[in-house]
Each structure stands twice: as C-alpha cells, then as structure tokens.
Amino acid sequence: MNYQTAGKFMDVYFGRFLSNGGCGYVLKPTYLRYDNAATAAGASSSVASGRFSTNLYSSNTPQILHIK
Fold first, then answer.
1. Locate the PI-PLC Y-box domain: which residues (predicted)?
2. Which residue of 14, 32, 61, 66 could cross-link 43, Cys pair, CB 3.0 to 4.6 Å?
C-alpha cells in the first residue's frame, strides 16, 4: 500500500474503515471466526487413509478438515 499516492485503492482502504467508525479494526468473516460455520453451511470432509474423501476444490464454500 503506497500511502503517498491517492487513487482507487486508497479509496477502498479508507472506505473499509468508515463503516466501523474509523477505529481501524475490521471483523473477520464468520467462516474464519467459528469452527462450525463451514459445517453449518452444509460442507463437511472426512479423512480416510490420510487422503481427503471429498474434493475440497469442488465448491466455493470454505471447508474445515477435522482430524480425530
């Protein structure tokens, strides 16, 4: 980020913090804050012989791998 050059990216940067009162903190998305957010959306995976039993790249939904 080049703070000396005004432009489109600086507008996006400043606009991102305007929505929270300019405090400089942006809350992470739900799927990054909670372990069960991805499984609640219907995504799940399991491990069999050290390999994924489902293709993790088949959907745009983030998936979390739980190893027991």
1. 1-33
2. 61
